[in-house]
């Protein structure tokens, strides 16, 4: 998926995939640059800086969808932002500068049991280890491996100043991690494909949502539910308010 370009700082912002195989214990540590946004110099290809949305991914939550560039006012401050409703179920608001990306705010936009919150100073998600897949034990987590939002892009309207998110809700997932050899040309999941579960929430009456968020306040303004499926359609906001 292509990135976004900031002509003022001549910077390309590019989303990055997750580590493999899925169980994080097979690739310990933060796994630098994975599930991140990179700030790249298009003339040299060098990385100027980065922000990692979540560390040691274990849920197949890549973050390849590029962030939106929005001029924003929040908490009485004007700044140039990067906005990214993540596959990790967190709605990210970051500040972009020529050589730095600063955390501003992050909150869940769908139900999640993986994160207890986000560290205010660093922007690092606070993990609940009971919902992180491991080797030899089945672990369930919310949202599912499809994430709070998959690859279909969200959009921003400068008219309404709202972000429109094609979201997945009321599905959890689970699998049992296992050691598998790397075979070139084949998927390297760290689990059996037939073991990957998609678990509907009890009494769920819908699985997809088109959400409208105010990124300046963190408030959801409205949502439209899709009863029978997750929402895998990208969103475009037009000047005619479509």
From TrEMBL:
<protein>
    <recommendedName>
        <fullName>Pyrrolo-quinoline quinone repeat domain-containing protein</fullName>
    </recommendedName>
</protein>
<dbReference type="GO" id="GO:0016491">
    <property type="term" value="F:oxidoreductase activity"/>
</dbReference>
<dbReference type="InterPro" id="IPR011047">
    <property type="entry name" value="Quinoprotein_ADH-like_sf"/>
</dbReference>
<comment type="similarity">
    <text>Belongs to the bacterial PQQ dehydrogenase family.</text>
</comment>
<dbReference type="Pfam" id="PF01011">
    <property type="entry name" value="PQQ"/>
</dbReference>
<dbReference type="InterPro" id="IPR002372">
    <property type="entry name" value="PQQ_rpt_dom"/>
</dbReference>
<keyword id="KW-0560">Oxidoreductase</keyword>
<feature type="domain" description="Pyrrolo-quinoline quinone repeat">
    <location>
        <begin position="4"/>
        <end position="97"/>
    </location>
</feature>
């Amino acid at each position: 998926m292509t990135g976004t370009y900031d002509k003022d700082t001549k910077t390309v912002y590019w989303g990055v995939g997750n580590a493999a195989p899925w169980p994080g214990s097979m690739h310990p540590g933060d796994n630098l640059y994975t599930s991140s946004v990179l700030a790249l110099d298009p003339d040299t290809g060098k990385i100027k800086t980065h922000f990692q949305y979540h560390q040691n991914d274990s849920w197949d939550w890549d973050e390849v969808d590029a962030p939106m560039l929005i001029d924003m006012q929040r908490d009485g401050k004007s700044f140039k932002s990067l906005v990214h409703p993540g596959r990790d179920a967190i709605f990210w608001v970051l500040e972009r500068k020529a050589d730095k990306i600063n955390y501003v705010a992050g909150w869940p936009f769908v139900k999640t049991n993986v994160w207890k919150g986000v560290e205010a100073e660093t922007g690092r998600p606070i993990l609940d280890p009971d919902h992180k897949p491991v080797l030899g034990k089945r672990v369930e987590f919310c949202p599912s491996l499809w994430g709070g939002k998959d690859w279909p892009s969200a959009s921003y309207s400068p008219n309404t100043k709202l972000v429109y998110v094609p979201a997945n809700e009321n599905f959890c997932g689970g699998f049992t991690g296992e050691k598998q050899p790397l075979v070139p040309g084949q998927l390297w999941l760290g689990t059996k494909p037939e073991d990957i579960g998609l678990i509907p929430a009890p009494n769920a009456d819908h699985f997809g949502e088109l959400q409208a968020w105010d990124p300046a306040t963190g408030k959801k303004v409205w949502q439209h539910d899709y009863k029978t499926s997750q929402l895998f359609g990208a969103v475009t906001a037009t000047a005619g308010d479509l």
